[in-house]
Amino acid sequence: MLTQTSFQGKLNKTEDLFIPFIEAGDPTPEVTIDLALKLQEAGADILELGIPYSDPLADGPTIQRAAKRALDNGMSLQQAIELIPDMRANGLEIPVVVFTYYNPVLRIGEEKFFKLLEEHGAEGVLIPDLPHEESESVRELALKHDIEYISLVAPNSEERIQKIASEARGFLYCVSTLGVTGGENQLSSEVTDFIQKVKEHSPVPVAVGFGISTNEDVQMIRQHADGVIIGSKIIRLVEAEVENLKDDSKRHEALNRFYENVRELVE
Amino acid sequence: MEQVYPDQQGRYGDFGGKYVPETLMAPLQELEEALDEAMADREFIAEYHGVLEKYAGRPTALTYADKVTEILGGAKIYLKREDLLHTGAHKLNNAIGQALLAKRMGKQKIIAETGAGQHGVASATVAAKFGLECKVFMGEEDIRRQEPNVFRMKMLGAEVIPVSSGRGTLKDATNEAIRYWVANCEDTFYLIGSVVGPHPYPRMVRDFQRIIGDESKRQFLEGEPTLPDYIYACVGGGSNAIGMFHPFLEDDVELVGVEAAGKGVDTEEHAATLTKGDRGVIHGSLTFLLQDEHGQITEPYSISAGLDYPGIGPEHAYLFDSKQVRYEAVTDEEAMDALKLLTETEGIIPAVESAHALAQAFKEAKDMSADKTILINLSGRGDKDLATIMNHFKGEE
Predict the structure, then answer these.
(1) Phi, psi for B86 (deg, rounded to 5)
(2) Which pathway does UniProt place it in (chain A) (predicted)?
(3) Which residues of A are catalytic?
(4) Domains in chain A, CATH or no CATH each
């Protein structure tokens, strides 16, 4: 049994975490590497690397579009994982959490999946359509391969919160609102009560995601949680530059604008 | 021995389960508790049967198809006439059950997904009848293929929400309905139309459709000394087939599920999930599905919008895996030929979906001896398919 997981070894702090999400292969594999590095430069503490999927049930239109762009370029689960060593070679030091739906994992095989993650230097995995009850074998494999299995809790998890939170690894993903990613968010006082309740039971940092799109949202979440997860908003920033990012002569400028926009969002 | 599955986790052997975002775990739990309570309540069951009888027109007839039997010259062919049910297909059995449950749970809003539009029409119908607000998610391609049903839904007061993602068919409509439900689960009941989705949906839909098999069993023995030797039903998600098969699972009857082979199972264009698919998760359930080497769900194809689905109910996956039911696949062409034969000999225009079951049954009946009996579930009528049928036979006149 390890005293410290690779995830913990790479994580520099346990509060005020900024956890951005990007989709592997959106718009190209090379740009995904550049974006990961820019996000680290902009203060990211953990990178969520999304695997594009044909039927992303938990995602709204923004991430669906990102998935489509990536799939149209032929991105797959294995190829996405293989990007991680390239990110590392270019200076990425923060932990990488692979975000994937369950079917591609089943297809490649659970054992092989975790072996790939370990071999390619991923530190965590998040499977949004694998609730606690269905995830036992996957959690065991994750432990064996030194990969943190990131769990989610939702505002309506109620009595499940204690069970899920107390067994949480890496960080605990708090879904701020009922709905899919990228929706309108009203961060009500109910959310802060919910976060408080989750924090009472969680041995790991508690981060909040879903619908966080403005600097005000970020400031508000910071007051209550240990971290903020930003997905759709980051994807929209990528989307705004998508043609420039694909163009060798314009990529550098586009990445700098992306960096500035991310800074504005989280500073 | 009946009802040994699903187990507590909603498993049919390896299949089924609840592969959903955490946000849906609470509403699924709420649904399961309400369902178990309702199914154990005699008044609820009586109300359900009352509506089926007085409103929907049950029992539906069992018809001896003497002409087609004579032409094929083999086994005696019987048809279970779900095409005679109000709204024209078996879908209403389930929609009534779930709408009554929604009301009992105090949910005033229902949502549904639809492919051919039959489940959408059934949902819009029960919404009108029971005073519920109804939204139906439907792929844009299906809206084009099934225009009359879109009009019927709107007349019945439902809002039809076009879904443009993917190829705009049932899979995509189901994704969108699930996404909507995640955000609105507090006041909205998701009325799933087939034996698919996370537990307890496959069990619930089966239990609201098994009336087809229960009735058939009784009716068949009124005319014949023994149960049928064979029973055929078409399978997309698989609700009419499970409804028909389930009461016969312990009997000495050969059950045959018929999938859509589209342009052929050796082409890219088919919806033959069990014949050509692999294990995987779709719409919250572990089952068989059509997918590529990377686990991306692929787009199915069938001339029939109701069979155009890349997954299949988990109970079918189990019955296939445990070899309790035989599954076959028939092409668009074979189905349309069977549709024509039934229309011309029996004066019944079947739905293109049901024509798949007919095609397989006719193929096998020919080679059977005259003392064999077969039962085909005629799951719906073909009025909704007239444009498809006209288009298919164009130039033959």
Answers:
(1) -50, 140
(2) Amino-acid biosynthesis; L-tryptophan biosynthesis; L-tryptophan from chorismate: step 5/5
(3) 48, 59
(4) 14-266 (3.20.20.70)
The per-residue pLDDT for range B18-64, each reduced to its tens digit, is 999 999 999 999 999 999 999 999 999 999 999 999 999 999 999 99
What pLDDT band is residue B194 in, cutting at 50, 70 and 90? very high
Choose the closest CB to A129 out of B21, B289, B298: B21
pTM: 0.96
B9 touches A: beta carbon within 8 Å: yes
Q: What is the mean pLDDT of residues B315-338?
A: 98
Closest CA to B143 of B181, B119, B117: B117
Name which of B18, B278, B294 is nearest A77 (Cβ-Cβ). Answer: B294
Closest Cα partner for B180 from B21, B367, B54, B378?
Answer: B21
Which residue is listed with tokens 């959903």?
B20
Tokens of B130: 């029971």
* pLDDT score of A183: 78
CA A152 from chain center: how many Å? 12
B15: closest CA of chain A, how far (Å)? 12
Question: Is 50 exceeded by the pLDDT of residue A120?
Answer: yes
Q: In what order do the strands lie in the sheet with B159-163?
A: B159-163, B133-139, B109-114, B188-190
Return d(Cα B108, Cα B133) in angstroms, integer.
6
CA distance B203 to chain A (A): 18
Q: Tell which of B11, B15, B22, B289 to mutate to test the A interface (max A CBs under 10 Å).
A: B22
How close A242 comes to chain B (CA, Å)? Answer: 20
The answer to whether residues A44 and A72 touch, using CB atoms and an 8 Å cutoff, is no
Is ipTM > 0.90 here? yes
What percent of chain A is predicted at pLDDT more than 70? 98
Q: Which residues of A touch B278 (CB under 8 A)?
A: 107
Please report the pLDDT score of residue B395 as a whole number.
67
Inter-chain CB proximity B175 and A71 less than 8 Å: no
Burial class (CB within 10 angstroms; exposed 0-12, middle 13-18, buried 19+) of A85: middle
